[in-house]
Amino acid sequence: MRYIIVIIILVFISSGCQGFQTNESLMKPPAPFFNIKEAIQAFVPSNATILEANTGEFLDPFTIIDLDGNGTLEAILFYSGIKEGIVQGLLLEEINGKWEVAQTFEGDGNTLYELDFIDVTNDGLLDIIAGFSFTNQYFERGLSVFHNSGNEIRNILNTSYTHKVLDDLNEDGVQDLVLFFLNEAHSWNEAFVYNYDNDEMLLIDAIPLRSYIMGYYNLLTGYVTEDLQKGIVFDIANGQHSGYTNILLFDGISLTSVFNEEDEPNGKSFRIYSEDLNDDGIIEIGFPRVPDGYENQEEWFIPYLGSYYRWDGEVGLQFVAERYASFSLNYSFDFPWEWQQNVTIEGSLNFQDVKFISTVDQSLLFDIYVVPVTEKEEKMEGKIELARTNHYVYYTTIDDKQLHKKFKLL
Ligand SMILES: [Ca+2]
Ligand SMILES: [Ca+2]
Ligand SMILES: [Ca+2]
Ligand SMILES: [Ca+2]
Asked: Domain limits at 403?
């Protein structure tokens, strides 16, 4: 995305630097953007369906990007509905303000699941990584990697997959393409890693994962230990609300699982997403914690806290911090590290108002009052406003700027 933003800025800057233009011409969008609709009309059959990716960073019906880094823009788009079961890719080049078809390429499927532009071949030119599917309901999709050499686009990988992760996991300068594959029957689940080598995408290693899961609900790549070892953290759904989390590592030769998959490691009765909770660049594994006093409540009434742990690099986990999140009221509140896990909650009906209480000395640590904007606000007199949306105003009685910063709208 950063790439695209930079290019758009450059285009605007260059169009603004030409000088001596009339006000009218200055107000027009730069030519390439202006003409793309015409080009699509000219090059895409009228009965075709132009595809937008389902997920990822590139969600538009076309992407304008300098794919080969030569300073001129390319447009990439996909359509289906002309050849049965085939997605057609088009690469347009901008020549003197007009778009021309430079390359065409194909993938198997009817829809575009995801799209990425990453240099997987280490030649400095962005390659096209596209996930295709026959229907959006399927786990099984097809991933295609199109190597862009600057004057030719060549398909160098077609394989079944469910989710992809691209990162240089062993930090050797070569992008590692890790694919997770769960078949439709859920009887087969594995991860495999590819590296580009000698004009092809080479399968380097594969690792079986626990089958008969419901699916993956979250995949992240990044640092996973305090000494900055990289890994892939994946959260698995294995029941209606339950899940577990594992980490995969890659050293350039082998994919290894940190925890034993068959144990459904780091199990959780309620699916908390793993993430970098404290913004230190290291991913934490999220667990639900039932606050004191709610042990015998019906599950739907428990105000679960998210409790986050970092892998210690060996066999254990280290506590990092906790968070309270209300998805119905659209906010989260991160507990300072010092609170550890010595916090419980007192809430009004539906937890519209919550108080965070120390389980050490029963003192009030923080409170949040959520008031619909339509309600009279007099009773909030003396309280401090934390945030305001079109629907709610959020208040606290605790005058502590450091704690106010821990409040975030979702
Ligand atoms: Ca270019
Ligand atoms: Ca490349
Ligand atoms: Ca690598
Ligand atoms: Ca972190």
From this structure: 327-410
